[in-house]
Amino acid sequence: MQQLVRQVPVSDHIVRYALSLVRQTRVGGEGVPDFVEDLVGWGAGPRAVQFLILGGKARALLQGRHHVQVEDIQALAPPVLRHRMVVNFAAESEGITSDEVVARIIDATPTTEDELSRDARFQKIFAS
Predict the structure, then answer these.
(1) Of residues 77, 42, 72, the one with CA closest to residue 58
(2) What is the pTM for the complete model shown?
(3) What's the CA gap between 76 and 62, in Å, rounded?
(4) What are the tens digits of pLDDT across the range 24-77?
(5) Cα(36)–Cα(43) distance, rounded to whole angstroms?
(6) Helix, strand, or coil here: 41?
(7) What is the CB neighbour count within 10 angstroms for residue 60?
(8) Rounded distance, CA 116 to CA 26, Å?
(9) Other C-beta atoms within 10 Å of 52: how many?
(10) b/e map of 68-101 (b: 16 or more CB within 10 Å)?
(11) Beta strands of 1-128 (E only): which ranges?
């Protein structure tokens, strides 16, 4: 089963989408939303992207598909990112959880390839 999961193809767009979600958790990074700067003490690292993609592959198979969709990454973002991201005291004092921050990041991130590639927040990331 693990070999089958690893063989599921992933488009460049899905990889960029997962990368965009994870990069937006990192305080001080380019294109990070203001609410992340205000609420997050520590963001997710590069392995979070790997686990979003791998989990997306598994979820796609479980859903009867042979390719990963944006919805797979969105569904896995809270469980993958919640323990890789630490909210700061300001968030804790307001009762804001990492899941709520992840939900806001998902809402703030374009989902189509065209929107994502034209969004100035991500152009430098994708150029490297």
Answers:
(1) 72
(2) 0.91
(3) 13
(4) 999 988 889 999 999 999 999 999 999 999 999 999 999 999 999 999 999 999
(5) 9
(6) strand
(7) 21
(8) 18
(9) 27
(10) bbbebbbbbbbebbbebbbbeeebeeeebebebb
(11) 40-42, 86-87
Task: Tokens for 51, please give them.
Answer: 């686990």
Residue type, position 80, single letter: V
- The CATH superfamily holding the domain 2-114 is Magnesium chelatase subunit I, C-Terminal domain (1.10.8.80)
What are the residue ranges spanned by the domains of the chain? Answer: 2-114
How many residues in the chain? 128
Q: Which residue has the higher pLDDT, 124 or 2?
A: 2
How far does the chain reach from its first CA to its final CA, in angstroms? 33
Amino acid present at 92: E
**Helix, strand, coil tally for the chain in percent (to 5):** 65, 5, 35
The token pair at 79 is 């469980």
The amino acid that residue 108 corresponds to is: A
Q: Please name the residue ranges forming H helices in 1-128.
A: 2-6, 12-23, 34-39, 47-62, 70-81, 89-93, 98-108, 113-118, 120-127
